[in-house]
Amino acid sequence: METRNPLKPLCLFFFAGREGLIRYTVLMAVLAVGLAMAHFTVDRPHYDGRHYAFMAYNLVTHGTVSTDQDLMPGEDPLPSLRREPMFPFLLAGMMAIYPGQDFRTHGKACLLDETLCPQFLTFLKIPNLALHVLLICLTGWAAGRLVGRRGAAYAGVTLAALFTGYLSLANIYYAETLASVLFLLTSMGLYLGLTARRPSAAAGGGLALGLLILTKAAFFYFLIVCLMILAGMAFLALFRTVRWGAVARAALYVLLACAVIAPWMVRNHAVSGEWKIAGRGGEVLSIRASYDTMPWSDYLPALMYFTPIIGEKILLRTYGEEVFARLDRESDASYYQTAKDRRSVAHVRAAEEGVSLNAAALEVVRENFGKHLALTAAFMYRGAFAQAYVRDQSLPLALILLGAFVALWFVPAGLAVSLWAPFKDIRLWVFLFPAYFSYAFHAFLTHYIPRYSTPLIPVFMIALIVFVCWILEAAGRKKKT
């Protein structure tokens, strides 16, 4: 008599056909939301999140996008461009539809004291929860589309759902989850638009890139690179090396991105007289220039400090408090804090010579260019640890450790796929190009805290899945022979 496997109906329900994949995706999305909400804390917005929250508050109450926080009664905020507007727009929408009375009673005090409006602060976390669910679906779709196997889609859904970086981000008011969604759409739009010859994909990718720039201004430089590539493609098309159809799709991608950001840049020019997305470029570059002034003897300690979990302990034991203080972001003596407090070489030079902070910082970089290149390698190392940015340490330790282990393979797997792509599918270079540009850009021009890598995580997740699938295929062929 044949024994019946009691798990077979359950396996068929979740793993049979397209419908099974949809059910599994719903299951993992519910699990992710449950894990995130089970570890929610009631905290007022901090750091970047505080800027975003006040931009949203000023937009809802005054109709002005501004980071002003200390307004007198009856005083209107001044328009500002310190931060990008996309995530504050989402928060503003949540504030506008919030049904409770606590926010209407206490106003901006809700953003300064978590004891006044706990329900309101929790309500503002819904966008990141919803965006995480969307990211789970998109990662599964993109992995299945690139690999061509349903198993890859299951792997993408699982990794995106259980990755503790995103579970942690659901508990704070940061824009990284939104940026991750838009970055994945940007990469897939570029890939499908140029390799699958789909104008609709190119249009969608261009729209996503425009919104991504309004979320993270650093990606404006990716648009500039795209414009240069478009010009090169048009030139090659004159000699029939590139098809005009590809040029048209690339132009659609670039022009729609430009159309999305144009109104915001016009607004910022009216406010400040400058054509820019946000106002922190000089500040970030001055921080990086501050690191360039370090003595060579601090280079190895910097590598130690950039190693998560164990690095700081090893640095303290090996080099002592004085060296540690120069690298610790919270220390007044640190390279980071020196720039934040406007005491860096670039700030002093900008004040003395009457030049912009950007120009002064670039001059410091030029004077220390050899060290700048060496530090670029160190910051690439730092940026590889995307999982280090887990704010909620109360999440299950097993998930944190699993996420950390998987994250260690993201960048190596992406590199392996790039090297293997000419022999398997060279079109994957198009998919990975935005991620590598962002990785190199942040390593070269910023102090590359691991959070800057967060938007790249889904792309590197998919690269890891592609790499594992290729390994399994190779192993299967070897076994047959």
Summarize the structure.
With 481 residues, the chain is mainly alpha-helical. It is built from 24 helices and no strands.
Key phrases:
481 residues; mainly alpha; 3 domains
Write the layout of secondary structure elements.
Elements: H1 8-15, H2 17-38, H3 47-62, H4 86-97, H5 102-106, H6 118-123, H7 126-147, H8 150-162, H9 164-169, H10 176-195, H11 199-213, H12 220-237, H13 244-272, H14 281-292, H15 299-305, H16 311-327, H17 335-340, H18 345-353, H19 357-367, H20 369-383, H21 397-407, H22 410-424, H23 428-445, H24 457-480
Number of strand elements: 0
Q: Strand-and-helix sequence, N→C? A: HHHHHHHHHHHHHHHHHHHHHHHH
Approximate strand percentage: under 5%
How big is the Rg? 24 Å
Helix content: over 70%
| Poorly predicted runs of 5 or more residues | none
**How many H/I helical runs?**
24
Mean pLDDT over all positions? 87
Major sheet summary line: none
Ends apart, CA distance between termini: 37 Å
Task: Work out the count of structural domains.
Answer: 3
The backbone outline, from C-alpha atoms, is globular
Structural class from helices and strands? Answer: mainly alpha
Description:
Helix 2 (about 15-40) packs antiparallel against helix 7 (about 125-145), helix 18 (about 345-355) crosses helix 19 and helix 20 packs across helix 23 (about 430-445). With about 475 residues, this protein is mainly α. About 70% of the residues lie in helices and about 0% in strands. The model has no long low-confidence stretch (mean pLDDT about 85). It has helices at about 10-15, 15-40, 45-60, 85-95, 100-105, 120-125, 125-145, 150-160, 165-170, 175-195, 200-215, 220-235, 245-270, 280-290, 300-305, 310-325, 335-340, 345-355, 355-365, 370-385, 395-405, 410-425, 430-445, 455-480. The protein has three domains: about 45-125, no CATH class; about 125-280 and about 385-480, no CATH class; about 280-385, no CATH class. It starts with 7 loop residues before the first helix and ends with a helix. The protein contains 24 helices and no strands. The longest helix is centred in the middle third of the chain and has 29 residues, at about 245-270.
